[in-house]
Description:
The protein is of the alpha+beta class.
Amino acid sequence: MHELPVINSILSVVLKHAEANQVQKVVTIYLQVGAMSDLEDTWMQQYFDHLSKGGVAEGAKLVIERMPVVMRCNSCGHSFEINIKDGTKPVCPSCSGEKHSLVSGREYIIKNMEVL
Ligand SMILES: [Zn+2]
């Protein structure tokens, strides 16, 4: 259940933007979510529907794009994308190092929104 606070903060950004631009209605919200975050699309939409009730963003559709997970090798500094779904331990393609730090993969970004 990590979706609720995330949706709350997304919604508040959306509403702030809507108010500043005198938006009548928010139709679609385009989000980029890191592949490593455990936010579920269905839950995000459900929480959003619940939280946005009665406001300009009520009924808006979330379009969620998953962003790749990027790691940086601790030994050589090389950055590379990993596929977290294949289950294998990521190895640096440059030096075969096995110790890495997460660069991106957990963030969520409001990329764009469609409004009336
Ligand atoms: Zn390396």
